[in-house]
What we know:
Elements: E1 2-6, E2 17-18, E3 21-22, H1 23-37, E4 44-47, H2 56-67, E5 73-76, H3 83-89, E6 103-107, E7 110-114, H4 129-141, E8 147-151, H5 161-164, H6 171-178, E9 184-189, E10 196-200, E11 203-207, E12 233-239, E13 242-248
Parallel strand pairs: 1-4, 4-5, 7-8, 8-9, 9-11
Antiparallel strand pairs: 1-12, 2-3, 6-7, 10-11, 12-13
Fe (ii) ion (FE2) binds near residues 8 and 193.
Amino acid sequence: MKFIHMTDTHLLRDGEWFLGFDTQSRFERCVQSIKENHSDAHCIIVTGDIAERGEPEAYRYFHEQMATLGMPFYSIPGNHDLRHNYSSVLPDVWSDPSVFAQQAIKTPAGVFLLLDTLLDNSDAGTLCEHRLQWLSDQLMDFSSEPVFLFMHHPPFDLHMPAIDSIGLVNNEPFLTVIKSHLNIRHLFFGHAHRPVSGHWHGISFSSMSGTNHQAPLDLKGVGNMEVVDNPEYAIVIINDDQLVVHTYSFLDGYR
Ligand SMILES: [Fe+2]
């Protein structure tokens, strides 16, 4: 099964630029690239920071553009999203019967669990007791199937102080919930604005650049805010015995 992972679109209103780039123009090039090259993808998952300022207009535009792809798309909020506007505009049906945008999606490759790490009025993220209980329940329900996790905030340090300082604030309770579930095959996240991969407590993970601006590789925390330019999306291919992630810089044209 093939699906698309997209993240951190940071959309603004028509014609508005952010950190040197027209957010809608870049997003549309990303959508066009997926349309031209990956119309056979099963679905698209977008891991947060959909709208830079959380405006309803940005969510409506996001939904309109994504609908042109003709395949199912699902999203979770990031720290830039405003919960009320996000939930009011995007018509996803949450599996979690609460205000939280969490859902379990059954796919041919297994179950995708989308987690809502939005902590209102903070750039850091959290999974409160309610959200963790929902996750625990889902992991019990789907204990015999491959499970893939999606969240905006990484639940561990990336050794990038600027990102680590606004990561998931309660890593340990999250780890406690997931660590005994050996059927978790991969963790996808956003927030980093950089391609990054590895494994954590035996769970492989990946992320990549957003569709607008990227973060510099600052491992020393010197506060280098220079914006580097490498917008990407990822193509993920899952088989019974393998998961492959290709990140693709869509401004380059298809190769
Ligand atoms: Fe972001």
